[in-house]
Design goal:
By secondary structure, the protein is mainly alpha-helical. It is built from 3 helices and no strands. It is 74% helix and 0% strand. The longest helix has 28 residues, at 12-39.
Length: 91
Amino acid sequence: MPEGEPSRKLTIAEALLGAVVATVVAAVVVVVSIVSFDANPAWPVIVVVAAIVAGSLGVRRVDSPLLKAAAIGLVLGGVVTLLFWPFFSVD
């Protein structure tokens, strides 16, 4: 969004839909990280780093509220995976 333009307020429905989208995308990142461990123990790290990088770029470069929520979900999913990795059962 250009600097001179005022930002538009989100409606409650858009905010709730954005929260749902972010939650679903974050859960997908966590699940993909856990599932990828079976193929190669290094892949969860690649998944998490890719999710955080892609989400960070998406938050800065996307104007759509839903795509921005998905990008936030990527970052949150990566961070949750990193923080709680010792508690996941990947045996």
